[in-house]
Amino acid sequence: MINKLFKIVLSAMFWFLVALIQTSFFSIYTDFNLIILFIVVINLIENPENNFGLISAFLGGLLLDLNITYQFGLFTLSLVIFSLIVKIILLKFLRIPYVSWLPKI
After folding, report:
1. Dihedral angle computed from the Cα positions of residues 92, 98, 104 and 105, in that order, rounded to the nearest 10 degrees
2. Which of 12, 29, 40, 56 has the smallest count of CB within 10 Å of its CB?
3. Phi and psi for 94 in degrees, rounded to 5?
4. Does some domain include residue 105?
5. Does residue 32 lie within any of the structural domains?
6. How many domains does the chain have?
7. In which element (H, E) is residue 98 found?
């Protein structure tokens, strides 16, 4: 219980830092979305049966919604749906072999 709570708090701090970098540097100079890149990497690294990628997509989208002037919830909903699609593709169609040097989440 404490380990899972610690993981969520650490993830929230990480997503806050990534959203801050995204909105302060990358939004000025380029259209590159760092949050989507990290969500894809997290969903590729973790076990497809776990839901940490969905929690990360929710936190990243929520922090991105707080900083951008579009309708609230647009990025949160789109990132959660995107993460769900990546999970379904990995679960149903792709089998990525285990690589020992990649850390498991």
Report:
1. 0
2. 29
3. -115, 145
4. no
5. yes
6. 1
7. none
